[in-house]
Amino acid sequence: MRRLYYNEAIKRPPPIQLYLLTGFLGSGKTTLLNNLLELSRKKRTGIIINEFGETEVDRSMIDHRDLEMIKLSNGQIFFCGLAGDFVKAIASFADRPIGYLLIEVSGMANPASLDAVLGEVKKLTGDAFVYREMICVVDAPQLLDLVQAVPAVCNQIVRSEIILVNKVDLVEESVVEEIEGKIRQLQPEANISRTTYCRRVDQGQILTID
Question: Which of 83, 103, 190, 201 has minimal Cβ neighbours within 10 Å of its Cβ?
Fold first, then answer.
């Protein structure tokens, strides 16, 4: 009789797919989050919301459904003081029966330390998570001014794999083209999509969720 070894006897669940959603205040992150929840409605999903300040608008706008949620308030999760809490919050989902973990970060987030955070998560949870992408929502009417005045906006673009140029219906085509050119300067490898209400204007999907 063939012996069944320990590693063969236990079928491990697939890793939880980890997505980060970023963008300056008012760009449309929470709209994107709701869109992704709609897309993943047949999948059990976890959410971490990093609210900056005391207003709980983001939490009140979210359709909870069958969700697992953690909120980190009054601070930016990539700052040293809260990075440990952020790591623990992610790790707390490792044994939960979810397929996706969506993290909406503060509009002032500087994700430069993301790799270090993911490294700490891996130390605690092994292969429980797989980082997929950071999605940055940019506000078309404001972006060209924001990149000059708010360093966090540039940092978010530089670190993101997917960038949504949102509210393109509110600006001229020439402005959208200038925005896309600026994004290419900052992050030449990003996948850029034009959106209204964080839905692609060409009707394609931002993400493919199995």
Answer: 201
- Provide CATH code, domain 12-200: 3.40.50.300
183, 165 Cβ separation under 8 angstroms: yes
CB contact set of 191 (below 8 Å; sequence gap of 6+): 161, 162, 163
CA distance 15 to 187: 28
Gyration radius of the chain's alpha carbons: 18
What is the token pair recorded at 200? Answer: 């692609």
CA 13 to mean position of chain CA atoms? 22
- Of 129, 114, 136, 108, the C-alpha closest to 32 is 136
pLDDT tens column, 61-95: 455 556 677 777 655 555 444 567 888 889 999 99
